[in-house]
Amino acid sequence: MKKNLLLISLLVLLSAVTTSCSSDNNNANTNSPEPSASAAQPTPTPIDPLSIKKPESDISIVVNRGNILGAFDLKNKKWVKAADSQKLLKGDEVFTYYSYDSVLGTGIKPKIKEDKSIDIAQDFPYSNNDELNAKVFIYQLGISGPWNALPRVPNSSGSNLITYGKIVKDVLDKNKLSDSNISIKKSAEIDLDGDGIVEKLVSAYDYNTATWFKSEGKEGQGTYSMVVLNKVIDGKEENIVIREQYSKSKPAKECIYLAPMVLDIDNDNNMEIIVEGKNLNTSTIEIFKVDGKNAKKVYSTEIDTKLNKK
Description:
Blueprint: H1 2-30, E1 59-64, E2 67-73, E3 78-80, H2 82-88, E4 96-98, E5 103-106, H3 120-123, H4 130-136, E6 141-143, H5 161-174, E7 184-190, E8 199-206, H6 210-215, E9 223-233, E10 236-247, E11 256-257, E12 261-263, E13 272-278, E14 282-291, E15 294-304
Antiparallel strand pairs: 1-2, 1-6, 2-3, 4-5, 4-6, 7-8, 8-9, 9-10, 11-13, 12-13, 13-14, 14-15
């Protein structure tokens, strides 16, 4: 009898424990805490500027810092001067803006004035993103063409200063400025034509005015500015000088060639090299097409940068 009562007691106890655990689990499932309203929301995925549809056009207009630089006529395969490019503006152009190594963003339709010019600061906001608007004023090119003008991105992070220094030194040696300071401003690797072989692009200049007095005409010293492309031709590396200026004395007209950009402006998958030359009153934008061992200037335009324009 006692054994039967003990057995019954154990069964009741086990039943109570099982019911209690089951009940707790149910409570946990039905009374789970609601997500907090103040919980951090996931960051929205930024819109890919290249995914924004652009109007189809045979004309690709190029702008830079508020200036219409010119355009490329894809149908007739020719460049159009800045003054004539202004006449081609329709008002539905959408420009994609590129920096040296990235796509900055895509701007909205421009508002065109009666004189067919664009007021970048007032009438042509690049986007509703203030951060983007600030970036494009640093250094940018805007292109209305509906393709990706940066199909391959320049890589400057792995640039070997010794390698690029040798490129600059070789060019200085040929111009009898062997003892000049080597001052590299920008260097990068880029596959210009998409053949899988990487070219090296370097810009360097040294316009330290102290040099003019310190050298006192000594052989091998002077000032310079250059943009050089190092390319493998027939299995051998060769230097192609895109732009250059040298002086063993104070130059009458300083011209500094700034860090170049590379973009496919004419949609042929062969990226052009865009060089800006600056002096006191003007800025000249020049576009070069590389073919073999030659760099041909295909377009250029001059921008007046005088502060006091009359």
